[in-house]
Batch of 2 targets.
Target 1
Amino acid sequence: MSTRLDRQIAFLNEADKLKSVLRGTTLGDASRRENSAEHSWHLTLYALVLADQAGPDVDIDRVLRMLILHDLVEIDAGDNPIFGTVDAPAVAAAEQAAADRIFGLLPDDLSTGLRAIWEEFEAAETPTARFAKSLDRFQPPMQNLMSGGGSWVEYNVTEERVAERVGSAIARGAPGLWDYARRRIAAWFAARAD
Amino acid sequence: MSTRLDRQIAFLNEADKLKSVLRGTTLGDASRRENSAEHSWHLTLYALVLADQAGPDVDIDRVLRMLILHDLVEIDAGDNPIFGTVDAPAVAAAEQAAADRIFGLLPDDLSTGLRAIWEEFEAAETPTARFAKSLDRFQPPMQNLMSGGGSWVEYNVTEERVAERVGSAIARGAPGLWDYARRRIAAWFAARAD
């Protein structure tokens, strides 16, 4: 018979698989693709360091929880690179099924509590979730600027396409970060065109 | 001239290097060594899921911050596998120098605030830091139990040596977790001896 602690550990062991889900972005030195576990860690550090970019209604402690949990569903549903083609309703359905299975490994109280945090992140309706989403969209361009273009080169996208895919999501939760990213992205594309 | 945001991003870019610091433990499927960034993420999830193992004086929000920051110094000072031989004063000095350089990349207010969290973790004197340390010592045996022995096999250690290296640190901040780990470690070594 499995105890409460057995179920908690079963969930934590399952979560280990997020370290093997690879993203479209690479490490800053371009040596390999980034995985979703280390990306999630990096985002929590973004939240600690860039908390002064959040509006007054943002709860940074809850932002941290959202960022820790936000990609767990990728263990089943995979990562969807930002410039790839996606069937959004199919992805949403796959992620809901993944959440059922993965959060369902936990004791009920924890399953309900942690899933509610993930659902709030996904819905992106609260100031806290919008700020967390902004960071999730802001980090990939920072990785690409470090690594010499990364997914911008791989997917051969234009500056306008980058702005379209990440600009509004960043600006919605953290306008100061979009102002910063927009200028640096423009400079990178301008230098490349020379 | 670098702005406040330039300094924040310079720190976050430097932190990216933690994804290339390899640990003694492997992923659960033993496919490769774990890195310190994804390990840090995993620990934050441990804190969320195992918060009920913390004593009443533990601040879980601060535990999360400690775990996000705790290994950053390894970018310069490297990881010290738990069963390796270490010169503790030399390691401590290297980690202090690393903290000077890495936290020093930040604007002063952030540098002071985040370093204080890291120093509290290192000192392991508060209930919050002791719980964070317990998780940092509890996760590697869980990885080894998943991966078929991991660093226990690599370093050819006895059950007594494992208990000596991790037992008191886990028990100090989370006695329930040490009770659980101790039983599972004993069962693993017993099965191996058969």
Target 2
Amino acid sequence: MKIADYSGVKANEEVSGVLMRVLIGAEEGAPNFVMRLFEVKSGCSTPFHTHNWEHEVFILSGQGKVKNEKEEETPITNGDFVFVAPNEKHCFINDGSDTLRFICLIPLVK
Amino acid sequence: MKIADYSGVKANEEVSGVLMRVLIGAEEGAPNFVMRLFEVKSGCSTPFHTHNWEHEVFILSGQGKVKNEKEEETPITNGDFVFVAPNEKHCFINDGSDTLRFICLIPLVK
């Protein structure tokens, strides 16, 4: 068992204004999927991209939008969840004034 | 893509004082793992049990404790994450005055 506060985990800047922490992954012995926590600064966005694995996302705080492959944008806030299917183009945009924080899980690459 | 507020998802009472919602699972097309949200009422607990799959947990709100297989209890609160390995005995106890809310992911049974 591992129990810790996310803020003590080392963060990497994935792209400008986007911090990512791996909370639970291979190092913790996770056999199937990986929990990461993202912080997107005000005015910043994750890349508008696609890949052949899914995202399971839960929004913790902040205000933003999810853009889908048709470039339609849907508002997201605390308490919302987002399922992005494999090969579905997407990004997470922070158009609010506070940091947008969310959990994003992906399958473990074995 | 599916985007929704968790509070709109139907909740089931798993045991007395413990509500569970399946946010992202087979119905949404999730191929590998399932996101659930638990609400444990003040003074209540999930069962002290074990199973051969893992939990990846993130605490959203409230105050509580995680009990491990040695019956040691560790405090948990908003911002903590918990990895429970397969076959590790565990439960989540709400010893605070507010509802304990957390996300708990498990592998998809195929």
